[in-house]
Write a structure and sequence with these properties.
It contains three helices and 60 strands. By secondary structure, it is mainly beta. The strands form 14 sheets. Strands 21, 22, 23, 24, 25, 26 and 27 form a seven-stranded mixed sheet that branches. Strands 1, 2, 4, 5 and 6 form a five-stranded antiparallel sheet that branches. The chain has a five-stranded antiparallel sheet with strand order 10-9-12-16-14, with no helix packed on it. The longest helix has 36 residues.
Amino acid sequence: MNIYAKILVLIVAFLVTSSPLIFMGSSGPNVYLYGYGWGSPTSPTTAYPGYTEFPFYVEVVATGSATPYEASITTSSNSPLQVVGTNQEGMVQQNGYYLTSFYISVSSSASPGYYPVTLTVDYSEPINGLICTFSKSFTLEVPVSAVNFPVPINVEGGTSGTTSQIIVGQGMVPLTLTVSNPSNNVMDNVIVNLTLPPGVFSSTGKGYLTFNVPSIAPQQSSQDTQMVNVTQEAIPGTYSLNYNERFTNYLGYTYYATNSNITTGNANVTLLNLPLTLTIYPKSPVLFYVSSASATPNSQVSILIKANSTYNYQVLSITPQSQLNLIHSNFTSNTFRSVSMFNFTFQVAPSISPGVYPVTFTTTYQIFGQTQQTVLTTYVNVNYYNTTPVLSDPSWGTQSDQVLPTPGETGIPLSFVLTNPLPYSLSNVNVTFVLPQGMSSPYNSYIVPIIGPAGTSGNSAAGTSGNSAQVSLTLNLASNVTPGYHYVKYIITYTTSYGIFRTASDIPVYIYPQSQLIASFDTPTIYQGTQIGLPITVTNPGSQPLTSISAQLKVTGLTVVGFTNQTINYLGPGENTTLVFSISSQGVGPGTYPATLLLSYSYEGFPKSSSYTFPINVVPSQDIVSVSVEPEELFYSTLNNVTINLVNNLQEPLYNLELKLIGNPSLYSLSQNSINIGTLKPGETESVTLSILPTVTSTTPIPLSVEVQYLLPQGGVVTEGYNFSLIATGLINLQLEQPTVTFSNGTLTVTGVLNNLGTATANFVTVYVNGNSTYIGSVPPNSPTPFSSTIFIPFSHANSSQEIRIDITYYDSVYQPHNISYTLHYVPTVQHLNFTNFGHSFHRNLLLIPTIIIVILIIVIIILIVLLVSRRFRR
């Protein structure tokens, strides 16, 4: 082929490649997309986020002479799909049908949906003897499916097949979780972490619980049971529980999610928020009560059902079962909180036989979203007569000794009268008591063998067959039982010729408040020879009046002046009155005397009494006023000032207080003998100063008598006497005269004269100079006595002030120690030094310093000369 032919072929090939339809038309060779998907045409499957190198197939159909020989898939840069490798298997041909496979990985963050990819098919086609190649592209929408997570569908108390309620304070109980598999493939290693309600913990004390299900078949469910601890802190209610879960699918891919969104794992998907609730019940969610009734044939009888709860509850149905015919009920299904009441009325047939007929109510209710059921049973006592045996006439104590029941009393007999109103006898009558709170008894049942019919006389307790009997029990009343009426419930069962019957009722008994007449008073104190009024306040703290109150005061050793017994006719609740008894201490000595106050009164017609024993203290009158004298040492032949101190120790003022002094004129003379002070207030101190001149000339005891007379606030004059022993001795007035200090050769000499200007000799006189003692001995009056003392002063203390302390001690004529101190200041100077003994050493030391200075100067001069000579030599 020449060059022009080649050019022509190229032009034709270009045209054919660019516009094959020009040559082929609609019926020419072509390539078409037949199908695609995950897996293979014979086993298609689904791909999920996180799948890696998962097979993806493409089917292509070629027409005419078109022959596909290669295909490829490309994705965008932000696509979660990634093609792994190339089309290694090529195109498989079978009668114009071509199949190829790829491996594609899906990102774990991919969301469910369709993602576009581009499929490019390369094929060849012969044209005019030439093999021409073509490419054709297709856009494929590749699906990524959402992950089917296991679904926790239920959590409840109990184990598999056995359901139980979760109740507050129940302790360790099983909790079962049911998990379903909504997918068409098996799920393995399913783990669900469940958040528990407050007050509920795992067996290890955690606030969450982990359930493990090894495997769940497709479209099936499995259960796992774990133990939880339901504590007293758990709060009743219905809780929506949060959870997270993890599982492995059939291809080994693991996924993790919570009940709101994915937190980690291979898939960015949202898990359907299915409600998972757990109900915690209170210990008694709803309490039901049913009444009993009595009836006669051919009558109607009503039975009440009461429901009570602190939570919202719905009564769904109440179904009665009985031989009696239900004719009316006000029950309607509704939601309640607190108390709800329902009335059921039954018809008693005319032909019915007397007896006890049970009525059973099956009650269905709903609380916390759970349906519960309870069965209530009561009885209708059918008699020919609309009456039953009853208890009446409660009485406390015995017939010979009735008592008034008050809180805290024990062993009190309580009797009732059991009466049979029926026209036939009763046998095997059993009375069972249900005592209210605060009352107890060692037994609660009483049996009467037989009671006669109504209208018969006698008493079964006395052995006769009358229609009544006495029923007794012994009660203990708690100290905190509330006064007032208390209802004692009782149940009577008995046998008649018609059968066994039962009736129940209650009877009120009254507990009286504790009534104790209270007396309050202060412990009295009486001074010798005086009389006081003792006020006693009598109070009725109870809620009932007291009458015929008598107060009697008995004392031993003392005297009650006037009435010893006082009465009050009436004292209302909470009222009080004051009684005053006068007590005299005339003619008795100090000490403690016992007294007894006896109170007697009437309470609700019953006599009561109480007593108080207390001490009465009699104290000496000297304890009222304290007297002291100072000083106790006087000097003869000298006028001395003496102070007398008086202190009122009483808590009340003293009046007309007078001070009298009684002395011995042969020993001393007083400036005054009587002083009128007047009123002395409580705790006040009064000081009186007078002058005493002892007339003796030697050491002599001086007796002094002090008499204090005053008037007490309650009346009565008290006189107290005090004796003091003073001493008169001579006056010693020892003085230091002419103190002189000299200093020589390091020794300080202190001299002076001791002169006694008094009237008595100073004994055992000792002089201390800076601690150095010099014993003098006695220093008589007007006899100057010299002394001298030396102390050593170091050379380093020269020219510095020296403090010289002189202490003089002595004993007086009654051998009492005394001390006198003086302080001198002295500065020893250098001219006071005598260097005779220190001359040699002292002068040598003075020459040493100039010699050293001269030697230093010579050395400096020599150094300077050497330096000057050296400089000149260099020049």
